[in-house]
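Case study 2.
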Amino acid sequence: MRKRSDFQSQLTPATPERARGQNHEPGEDPRPSTQPSDIENLIGLGAFSARKSYYPELLQKIDELEAEKERYKWLFENALHGIFQAEINTSDARQVIRQANPAIAHMCGYRSAEHFQERIKHLSTHLFFDPGDLNRLMNVLNREGKWVGFESRLKRAGGDAVPVSMNVLLKDREQGLIEVFVHDITERKRSQEDMARLNSELEQRVEERTHELRLAKQEAEEANASKDKYLAAASHDLLQPLNAARLLVATLQESPLDNNSQNMVGRIHTALTSAEELLADLLDISRLDANAVIPEVQSIPIQDVFDTLHSEFLPVAEQAGLELRKLDSNHLIRSDARLLMRILRNFISNAIRYTETGKVLIGCRQRSDHIELVVCDTGPGIAEHQQQEIFREFRQLENAHKARSKGVGLGLAIVERIARMLEHPIGLRSRTNSGSCFYVTVPIARGTQPQPAPVAEVSNRITSLEGIRVLVIDNEEPIRDSMSRLLETWGCDTLTAADTAEALQQAERMPPDLILADYHLDHGETGMDSLEAIQQALQFSIPAIVITADRTDRVRREIANAGATKMNKPVRPAKLRALMGFVLEQG
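Prediction:
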């Protein structure tokens, strides 16, 4: 670029004649013409006034251009990003650096921009770490247009690579002139590599953790299966002695005793009842917490449920001096009949336990597409601060009628677990001295074939058992002896057997009217095996009750599929007698 003084020397005239653009030969009139030439007018110098007007403005523009040039030069030399201009000529394979700034030289490990230009004689081999990258860059540039972004690696003076991001401008396609702006992305690449490594490590950890969880789940499932087996075995072993004691106490109660002995037998009976209830409730809670109970949801007539419960609890209520009423309903509901009955039985037994005088009512009310099954009483009511507490384990009120059992405080905890499993909300409405209403909300069944509710565990019709021949199958002698004594007090003729082979001999010798079989026998045998062998041998079925401490759904279904009736241990003599009468009637 010319200096300001150069332009000034060219624009300042040496003589007046030159300033006016006049040339004359000797002899001609030397006086200036009053009219400027066409050229003077064209460039704006046709008069002194024009020169005076445009000259300062032109000098100002020159100064501005000079300042702009200096500014761009400073930016070029002090830019943080590398900048270079190169000529790529495919015809003669020329690849040279025409200009470079200090930043690109420093980025590539050279002392200066001049040193960088001196050493880089051929871009594809001296500058690019991967020689093919330059060709790829030019192909992209020619295809995409004048301005492209490109990532590559440049070769440093020491031979190592520096990852860079380039913005490349194609200034002249014919000459292959490009301008390149280079950014060092070493830190970004390092971060990406660290992120990739962390992701890989995380994926590996997730995979390892997933494998651990899979193993833990498998172990938990195996533990649950073992727990179910353990609970079944433990319940059998724990309840067997209680069962034997209960049968012996029942035999004593049926026998003529003096008042003192009868009082002691009554106390033993009460103690055994409390122990049985506690153990049975603990086993039920364990099975519910272990998800060992599988609901079987079906359509159920509410009336069947109410009739069964009313028949079952009417004698208990009458003995307590209470009135038990039920309201009829023609609704169908969707639920597991057995588990729903367990909830309602607990509500009713609690109502009778805590109501001193008055009545207990079983009814229902419709709530949109659901039905509330309600058990209300005229008892003392429950204070508001206690209403949530009673659904927790071992929580019970202190206002139970003194003449009745207080229970062990697990009944409502079992109810809460069953209701949660069935997705049947439960609740309580109560005020002190105004009675209580416990309810469970069940969905209405529509367009389904109803199934009858299960028969009550205890039928209240007492049928005479005089002369009935009963075969008792149990692997433990104390149980066989206790059961025989109890049955004989009811007038039954009793046969006993310890296993399937002995039971088959007894049945073939004298076919029984009814079979009482323990589920678990010795050497892996079950009472179901005995029933099947007897039925095949005699070619006709005999009414049977299978007594077991195993409350699993699998055992329940197995007994039902065989056409037998299940009774849970420990055996309550009154329930056993009523159930025997019911089975024989159905028989």
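The chain has 18 helices and 17 strands.
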